[in-house]
């Protein structure tokens, strides 16, 4: 964007408001009501700028769009040292997390027939089917009570 095109557009917009305002203030009615004169001048200035200032507006907005595109292209090609460092740290943390998560769970044996695939979800639910945990049947909102092997409170 050239500073000249933005300056020309700004000056023309100001003139589109100030000239009608000056003319309206020459009338005795608007001298007593300058706020009404300013409102009418703003409406007239808006109308004039929509009708006659399309090309200067296109030049200003086109320049802004070019400048934004150039900044976006420059930003994509050049990264700061902090961003590169953060990406490296994220990669190290991800690698450590995946290395820690792998030994925790043994791999399930591979099955080849459809019958064993159908039984697998039932086997996975078997521990839950044995009964609710002692903390699950406490719905009073208090802290869970430790239970002994017989089902009563631990002593």
Mass-distribution shape: elongated
Question: Which percent band covers the strand fraction?
Answer: under 5%
Instruction: State the helicity in percent bands.
Output: over 70%
From the helix content, strand content and strand pairing, which structural class follows? mainly alpha
Question: Can you offer a commentary on this structure?
Answer:
Helix 1 crosses helix 3 (34-52) and helix 1 (3-24) runs antiparallel to helix 4 (54-77). The longest helix has 24 residues, at 54-77. This protein is mostly helical. The chain is elongated, with a radius of gyration of 38 Å. It has helices at 3-24, 28-32, 34-52, 54-77, 81-104, 114-129. The protein is built from six helices and no strands.
Write the layout of secondary structure elements.
Layout: H1 3-24, H2 28-32, H3 34-52, H4 54-77, H5 81-104, H6 114-129
Helix pairs in contact: 1-3, 1-4
